[in-house]
Amino acid sequence: xxxxxxxxxxxxxxxxxxxxxxxxxxxxxxxxxxxxxxxxxxxxxxxxxxxxxxxxxxxxxxxxxxxxxxxxxxxxxxxxxxxxxxxxxxxxxxxxxxxxxxxxxxxxxxxxxxxxxxx
Length: 119
Hints:
Largest sheet: 2 strands, antiparallel
Strand content: 5-15%
Oligomer: single chain
Shape: elongated
Number of domains: 1
């Protein structure tokens, strides 16, 4: 069950959701991390029934929600960089944002890199 949560978390997380990171790597990395966690602890046996399906759906929801919250927090830094650019008058100096492929302002891209380094 932990695998489902980690797969959705790594797929939604902005650092791994970039289009240059292949989907098999995201799933494999999540499976690797989940395997380390699962094999390091003693888990009870769980029967595969409707209750197990509900638990899997809950884990999928938790992973998706955690990834979305992380994405919102990281994009807040990008918006703050845009606001600072606006007030400093750097609105006309655009560069290509490597994460989205769209035009972004110069300080906004600097803040994007800083958030990745501090994350």
